[in-house]
Amino acid sequence: MVALHHYLILSAVIFAIGVIGVLIRRNLIVVLMSIELMLNAVNLTFIAFSRYLGSADGQVSVFFVMAVAAAEAVIGLAIIISVFRHRQSLDPQEMQLLKW
Amino acid sequence: MVSPEPSSVAYDLLRWMPLIPLLASGFNLFFGRALGKQTAGALAAAAVGASFALACYVFWQLPAHGIWRDTVYTWIESGSFQVALSFQVDALTAVMLLIVTGIGFLIHLYSLGYMAHDEDRVRFFVYLNLFIFFMLLLVMGDNLLILFVGWEGVGLCSYLLIGFWHHDHNNTIAGNKAFIVNRIGDFGFILGIFVLVTELGRQGIWTLDFVELQQHVKMLEPATITLITVLLFVGAAGKSAQLPLFVWLPDAMAGPTPVSALIHAATMVTAGVYMTARLHFLFILAPATLALIAVIGAATAFFAATIALTQNDIKKVLAYSTVSQLGYMFLAVGVGAFGTAIFHVFTHAFFKACLFLGSGSVIHALGGEQDMRKMGGLKGFMPVTYWTYLVATLAIAGVPFTAGFFSKDLILWQTFSHGATGLWSIGLITAGMTTFYMFRQLFMVFHGECRVDAHAKAHLHESPAVMTLPLMILAAGSIFSGWLGAPEYLWGSRWEHWLEPVLGVSEVHHDSVSTEMIITLLTLGVVVSGFLLAFVNYRKTGAQTGSQAGGGLFYQISFNKFYVDEFYDLAIVRPFTALASFFARIIDPWVIDGTVNGVATTARRFSNIWRYLQTGNVQHYAAMFLTGALALLAYFLGQL
Amino acid sequence: MAGKDLTPPATQGVARPLENPIQWFHAASSVVSGKWQCRSMDMASVIFYLLATLLVISSLLVVFLRNVVHCAMALVTALLIVAVLFVTLHAPMVGILQVMVYAGAIMVLFLFVIMFLNPVELERRRGVWWGFGTILAVMLACVLTPMFIIDESPANPLAATESFGSPEMLAKSLFNEFVLPFEIASVLLLVAIIGAVVLAKREH
């Protein structure tokens, strides 16, 4: 049988990969996609625990996480569109107006 | 010396005595100008008159062993330590009340005439009434703290009134000097109060009430009591112008003459004597302090008299005379004769006020001239002033059957009979000097040829009735007020019996009547010789005849007040000013401002370093989050 | 944590009608593992490791590919694999939702926006920051992993009912204990819609 910690470690790895994406990529859309990746890693953790503890709460939580992730992706993309209109660029490293 | 337990009766009337002048003062402060100068002055005088009427009533009604009390409200309440704004009237306070309100009232009347042409007279009456209020607080307070409030308050009014004509800078300087020297004394006073409260508190008694203090002070150790009394005497020395804190009183003559009469002759300066009499039970337990007081009193009396011998300003002579007489009062206190000291306060108030008001009358008539060398022969122009002045001079000299004779002789007799022969002889010589300089003044001002300037001579006139009437009343008092305290071989003293419930069994020694008479005759001899000296030197010419007995050097020293002011300036004022200047120019900008600004500068420098974290790049910020989260996770991992 | 029916699981080899994908999966894995008896590992583990590898590879592709559209495709793949993982974990309903909502709706939205914005330039690469970011993420994984291993939850799954993970179970939770978050989530979605419209509108 697959032990619980296998799933958890997998989830940690995916989460870390998502973090790399958020920190490194110079395209805002890819950053947003990396965030989705991180959320999915967390969802995996929830479902794994739900299975292994026999509790339905994990799955319900995933349900809500998905709803929120959807909302967040929508808003994020709307912001990206708005920013692109003004700056013609999707590179976060070019948006440093709050620099010292 | 245990006084019989006095019966205490509550009496709401008492609070009105200080309150009426206070209300009048406040009313004049706000509405005085609207009332008009005449009405404002009349209101002020009437207020004090009302207080005087109340005082008379209280005095009349007060039973022999009674204390009347009026508690207004509890001022301080801190655990078991309670201080109330509360008035009491016993025999001692009743006497002081009569002096303060009676002579205060006469001087208010006098001021109506004296200040008639002054633009600022409303302000004058505001301050004067305020002074009466504080002085009444002082004498009527039933605990040491209320007394101190009054003490400080009269110091304030003294400052305000000395510097009354503040357009002349010298007057304000004199006012400052008075206040600051008083402050030095007050510092000692308040330290004394602190020690008293703490030491008693250590025994479990938390009080400053006079009646309770009298019951409990025996619990304290002698060393403590000596310390307390010395500190309290420092306060008295400041307020009552004893050595070394007398320097403010001659300068205080910069104020208007009614002020000099009321505050610096009759009432405020006697507050120190009153305080020691009120706390006699404490001072009795500290013989070392009493010895110190006696020595200082005698020294002050002698010292001030020597200065008065050569002064040319009419008011300065009287100022030094006041210091000298105050020295006599403290001499009496020092030998334990508290009742005698209060007796001298009583008589001195009459004749000194009369002298000051008389000099004011002269100054007023001459349009402001105060130098005696420019006076003379005024007897013909101002008869009433002259005769009252003469009576008062006789009183201060101690001519028999005047008030001064009875009180001063009593002091000298007490000093002698308590064994302080050295001090007695100093007092004797001082009496001679007193006679001399007072008659010198009388002759220079009123007799001989008239040396007055021509333009002043033109409007030379006797003062109006509002000024001469108080003079006459005071002159009468200068004679008859002393008759209350006559020695046994005449008709006996009602004075000590009156004060007995407060001050304990009479301290007057009545053992050897013959010795007393011999002492009196000796004093009389000294007085006569003083008079003759003055007569010979000043009767005819009326002008200074060069060097006094002792030669030119002595004259110079005396005339320059023994250079005391200069000495204080060099030894104390200048180093202090230098220190203050050092603090102002160096410590304040560099250390204090430097520290405050330094904190701000350091914060700014650190900010300038940290702000480079704000790269504006969101991914950098995310990395910082992550670093923080990693640290936390590592910590929790370590916990597992 | 209500409604937990712990009836004994279906044992292998018993002839029963296969009612849901879970049973299909278990039946399939037991058949396969029955064929490969010599393997020490059972089928479930094999499948897990296969899926895990694929997932990791597609995640890496999402993060390290240069073309945005390629990244989006990799993400779709990753999401589908996660859906399969959900199914193996007895959460078929959530798995279906994952496919429909995540891989279906959200990724489509992403692709729409990519095409709409049409970013042509490829990104530049910078060395130092890439290295630093990667190191940080690796450190994160390293910190998390021991935590998960030390964890004291049961290593093997508890016995589950047939209805575990089914729509009925989910619905029961949603409308009983979690009805308030449910309602709030709907408000949230409404707000998101309005917000997106307002933000992306062309200004006049």
How would you summarize what this structure contains?
The complex is a heterotrimer of chains A (100), B (640) and C (204). Chain B is mainly alpha-helical.
Kindly estimate the percentage of residues of chain C that lie in beta strands according to DSSP.
under 5%
Largest sheet of chain B: 3 strands, mixed
- The beta-strand count of chain C equals 0
CATH fold label of the domain at 21-27 and 37-119 in chain C: Four Helix Bundle (Hemerythrin (Met), subunit A)
- Helical fraction of chain B equals over 70%
Going across the major beta sheet of chain B, what is the strand order? Answer: 1-2-3
Task: Spell the H/E element sequence of chain C.
Answer: HHHHHHH
The overall pLDDT average of chain B reads: 86
Helix content of chain C: 55-70%
Note the beta-strand portion of chain B. under 5%
From the structure provided, what is the oligomeric state, counting identical versus distinct chains? heterotrimer
Q: How many alpha or pi helices of chain C?
A: 7
Question: What is the helix/strand order of chain B?
Answer: EHHEEHHHHHHHHHHHHHHHHHHHHHHH
Explain what the structure shows:
- The complex is a heterotrimer of chains A (100), B (640) and C (204).
- By secondary structure, chain A is mostly helical.
- Helix content of chain A is 78%, strand content 0%.
- Chain B is 71% helix and 4% strand.
- Chain B is built from 25 helices and 3 strands.
- In chain B, 51% of the residues are buried.
- Chain C has 204 residues and is an all-alpha fold.
- Among the domains of chain C are: 90 residues, Up-down Bundle (Four Helix Bundle (Hemerythrin (Met), subunit A)), CATH 1.20.120; 39 residues.
- The longest helix of chain C has 26 residues.
- Classes of the chains: A mainly alpha (100), B mainly alpha (640), C mainly alpha (204).
- The interface between A and C is large, with 71 and 88 residues.
